[in-house]
Write a structure and sequence with these properties.
The complex is a heterodimer of chains A (178) and B (241).
Chain A (H helix, E strand, L loop, with lengths): L4 E6 L5 E6 L8 H4 L17 E4 L1 H7 L7 E5 L5 E8 L22 E6 L2 H23 L5 H15 L5 E2 L11
Helix pairs in contact in A: 3-4
Chain B lengths: L1 E2 L3 E5 L3 H13 L3 E13 L3 E13 L5 E4 L8 E3 L4 E7 L2 E8 L4 E16 L15 H8 L9 E7 L6 E6 L5 E6 L6 H18 L6 E6 L4 H9 L3 E4 L3
Parallel strand pairs in B: 12-13, 13-14
Antiparallel strand pairs in B: 1-2, 2-9, 3-4, 3-9, 4-5, 5-6, 7-8, 8-9, 10-11, 11-12
The chains are: A alpha+beta (178), B alpha+beta (241).
Chain lengths: 178, 241
């Protein structure tokens, strides 16, 4: 668990190599620690790539929103963009099995939203946790279906993130590659 | 002025004195702090403005700038190491300008009132303090497993499961399998979901009737998370990073 993050480095051909960080999702501080002279932010990022030469669309589908707390996109010029994975899963509120194939359905589900600073990331994360808690209470109480809950969350995120990049990498239920 | 060999400080200084203390401090690679009413403007990968308010600003010799209010542990504005600082007086306003070239960013802090200013010559021979660092929490638990509970024995770190690698896998005093998951901040229900997923995955991995305990380690949890932990038979240990 820790505070896992994925870090995607752009290659000269425009595709990305994907690395992992155990703690990089803690406060999204890696964006300012990654540089050409220190590409792995000390030992914060595993220097061995997990996957190489993938388009960014593939990178997004490799995010496990239940596990990864940040995604960093490092351009070839070492400009770092930070994204928050937002997990829409509700099985844990309902006492369900959370493994793939169980009724809690832990197929990845959610959105990935751009943030512009660690403070922005913290504020967005706290807001989403509160929003999800509220929606989950309505589902647990029987006032909202899961389908409606998902729509409410997606709508809330799109409104709050109106000026941000928001990705829906699992909207067609692509298979997570991890 | 309060002056010792390593500290130069003034309370309610004039703007000229404040500029002098800050400038001398920056030039001598001191750690400089300013407290007073200021506005903060940031321009770079985003644009932000903070209106007038009392803030504590710290400039570190490595180029870091931190702007703190009276709330939270995170600064409201900041610049990373490597920035250059410049102090000046513009229209009777003490102006601290912090610039970074890659990416191009500028933080502008303008003080209309200064209540305190100080420059500290900091000597810190430790290259790295392990207390509170990211790996430290895990190392502390491995070094002192009784922080989890008496009789806990760590067996491996990063044990792989179908739901991902768990932080620490071990056994309790009765030989029962234990999954320990570490978080460095206050957590909510989603952390419970993550832990539950690891416990389920490990139970499936071991054998059909395996009973795996799950312990969430974090500074604190929300009330809702505490309820969900109890409902799933999972446990919580409070530990500061």
């Amino acid at each position: 668990m820790a505070h896992h993050a994925l870090v995607a480095y752009e290659r000269p051909d425009g595709r990305y190599d994907i690395h992992t960080s155990r703690w990089g999702g803690f406060d999204c501080h890696l964006a300012d620690a990654i540089s050409p002279t220190d590409p792995y932010a000390g030992d914060a990022i595993d220097p061995a790539p997990r996957v190489v030469a993938r388009p960014f669309g593939d990178v997004l589908t490799m995010v496990d929103p239940a596990r990864h707390e940040a995604l960093y996109r490092v351009s070839a010029e070492y400009v770092v963009d930070t994204y928050l994975p937002l997990w829409f899963g509700l099985g844990h509120y309902l006492g369900e099995s959370l493994l793939n194939g169980g009724p809690g359905d832990c197929q990845p589900d959610g959105l990935v939203v751009a943030v512009d600073s660690p403070a922005d990331a913290e504020a967005f994360r706290e807001w989403f946790a509160a929003a999800k808690d509220t929606v989950a209470e309505a589902v647990v109480g029987g006032y909202l279906s899961r389908t409606d809950a998902r729509a409410v969350l997606a709508d809330a995120v799109s409104q709050r993130g109106a000026s941000r990049k928001v990705f829906a990498p699992w909207s067609e239920r692509e298979t997570n590659e991890y | 002025m309060t002056t010792t060999e390593s500290v130069r400080a003034r309370t309610n200084p004039s703007i000229e004195i404040a500029r002098s203390v800050v400038e001398t401090g920056l030039d001598s690679d001191a750690l400089v702090t300013i407290f007073g009413e200021c506005t903060v403007d940031y321009e770079g990968r985003a644009v932000s403005t903070l209106g007038p308010g009392d803030r504590h600003v710290m400039c570190k010799p490595d180029g870091t700038v931190l702007v703190h209010t009276d709330e939270g542990h995170q600064p409201v504005n900041w610049q990373p190491p490597g920035c250059t600082h410049e102090i000046s007086i513009e229209d009777d306003v003490l102006t601290l300008r912090s610039e970074r070239s890659t990416p191009e960013e500028e933080l502008l802090v303008q003080f209309r009132g200064i209540e305190h200013v100080a420059a500290f010559d900091v000597t810190d021979p430790e290259e790295l303090s392990l207390t509170g660092t990211e790996e430290d929490l895990r190392e502390r638990v491995l070094d002192e497993p009784e922080l989890i509970e008496p009789g806990f024995t760590p067996l491996s770190t990063e044990r792989e499961t179908p739901a991902g690698a768990v932080d620490i896998y071990g056994e309790d005093a009765n030989g029962q399998a234990v999954v320990v998951e570490l978080k460095r901040r206050r957590v909510g229900p989603d952390a419970v979901g993550q832990l539950a997923r690891y416990v389920e995955a490990l139970e499936r991995d071991l054998h059909d009737d395996a009973d795996v305990r799950g312990i969430l380690v974090a500074p604190s949890v929300t009330d809702r998370a505490r309820t969900l932990l109890a409902e799933r038979g999972l446990e919580f240990v409070s530990l500061e990073p």
